[in-house]
Amino acid sequence: MDNVKKEMLIDAYVARATPMPTLPASAVRILELSKGDETDVEEIADAVMTDKVLTARMIRLVNSAFWGLRRQVTSIREAIVYLGLHQIRSIVLTTSLFNTFESKNPHFDVTHIWEHGLGCAMISRRIAKMAGYKDLEKAYIAGLMHDIGKVILSQYSLQEYDRVLELVRLGDHTFYDAETEILGVNHTDFATWFKTQWGFAEELAEVIAMHHSPEKAVLDPYLVCIVNLADLFSSLRGLDYEMTQNMMVVFREEYAWKKIVELSPNLEQTDLKRFTFELDAMIDEVKQTVQEIYHQQDDAEV
Ligand SMILES: [Fe+2]
Ligand SMILES: [Fe+2]
After folding, report:
1. Degrees to nearest 5, angle at CA 24 with 301 and 45
2. Residue 34, pLDDT above cutoff 50
């Protein structure tokens, strides 16, 4: 199918999500505020606290073991002080996305989507750190957002997506293949749409477009490879929308691994077994955090 036809199809799918979800105003304001170097912590804390659900979810996420704080924080001010603004941006973005895309499809629980997203975010950040990649928060955000096209398709093209799920559940199709077969487009085709409509950075759009074909990346191939590995690892460990697909992966033989070794030749010596044990610990943490975040919202709304 040519690109023009694909774009028409994408527009048609997005049109069903009317009005198209947008990040809450409070989140947009916080992301703006935390961009500058001379940011006022009080001002950010005030902006967060205008949104009760966001505040509760942020505190839960900040206290997840992943961020490595030595003590539990109980307020947004403390969270900003202990974590710093870069990490707060990642946390605001994560919780805002959780808030923006609540479940619409009864057959495809949005919780699984965010388990996969948060898992890939955390693992991407960890791989980026190990590989000496320049921007850890960028790696986290790219991991979080790589399947955002799947959120749109699964939550707003309900009937067709049920057929996609059926094919994946049968076990011989990946999401990518099943979406292409049933819908004519797949979740990676949404990259351009998010770039033009939501103003996503070029590198982030490239991750969305190429995370299943990292060898095609040109703008920031290391970033795409990091997310590709995080995605594979998450799927292997069951953070895969509850659709464990039969797969065999030997990391050292993956294109993405070989590319990252170019960035950091010391990785050749990495004890991959030990490293995967460390990642394993994150998987349960991710599941628990996502469950608690969604659960917490119920409490906050009462
Ligand atoms: Fe994907
Ligand atoms: Fe994925």
Report:
1. 80
2. yes
